[in-house]
Specification:
alpha/beta, Protocatechuate 4,5-dioxygenase, Chain B, six-stranded mixed sheet, 8 helices, globular
């Protein structure tokens, strides 16, 4: 069984699937991956402590957004559940990390990229909650989940490299990126390229463009779960997706 990498994806709102460049970049990234045995998704749109594991038999979708065209509420992604993966995660967690289960389905941070990556919906998927937004704790959680990579599991942290929605003035997909979004994205790219995880973890104080780039931090936090699952979090990851959509940075990366 091929060892899987781990990904951080900027997932976007449902209309991101209309962005031809993003779709092409994500499809190209996926084509270079071994086929997963299962997929573990951790999305910015599910914060819950203790650690929660979603539906494992059938996997419904959660249309957790408003104001879009009707077709986005008719999206289907009938992937099989992953009960064996859920049981494996429970065994990987220490007694100090309580794990609970729920019948919650996949939110758009999970299924939007999956509809592009694996449109046949034929790979078992499990979504887990973010039990914390603190980088150090998410790095540790990623380290605990890392053995799953040797078992054919694709670990995906799904967020957005910039997410300053309250400060956007132009809502067109092709809108020019505001200065705070460009500056934060450039800092993130350079800091990732240096493998400077400690600096990334201090983004609230060190990154240019704050707090506009992340007035709340849930869309940057999944990055640390992905970095924690890396063999060496300080090794520069591949950054195969970049650019902006609606002025927000789509930067995504892959760790070995």
């Amino acid at each position: 069984m091929s060892r899987m990498p781990a990904l951080f994806l900027s997932h976007g709102a449902p209309p991101l699937v209309d962005d031809e460049r993003w779709v092409a970049q994500l499809q190209e990234l996926t084509a270079g991956l071994p086929r997963p045995k299962a997929i573990l998704m951790a999305s910015a749109h599910w914060e819950s402590a203790p650690l929660m594991l979603g539906a494992t038999e059938t996997v419904p979708l959660v249309y957790d957004f408003g104001g879009f065209e009707r077709r986005f509420y008719e999206t289907k992604y009938a992937a099989p559940g992953a009960p064996e993966l859920a049981a494996r995660i429970e065994k990987l967690m220490p007694d100090s990390e309580r794990v609970a289960r729920t019948d919650r389905g996949l939110d758009h941070g999970a299924y939007v990229p999956l509809t592009v990556m694996y449109p046949d919906a034929d790979i078992p998927v499990l979504q887990m909650s973010l039990p914390t937004l603190e980088p150090d704790r998410l790095l540790d959680l990623g380290r605990r989940l890392a053995p799953l990579r040797d078992e054919g599991v694709l670990i995906v942290g799904s967020g957005f490299t910039t997410h300053g929605l309250p400060f956007l003035r132009d809502w067109r997909p092709q809108a020019a990126a505001p200065g705070w979004s460009r500056e934060f994205d450039a800092w993130a790219a350079e800091t990732l390229a240096r493998g400077a995880v400690d600096e990334l973890a201090e983004f609230r104080d060190r990154a240019p463009g704050m707090p506009f780039a992340h007035p709340t931090i849930e869309h940057f936090a999944p990055m640390f779960l992905t970095l924690g699952a890396a063999d060496d979090p300080e090794r520069a990851p591949e950054q195969p997706i970049d650019g902006f959509w609606m002025g927000l940075a789509k930067r995504s990366f892959q760790v070995a």
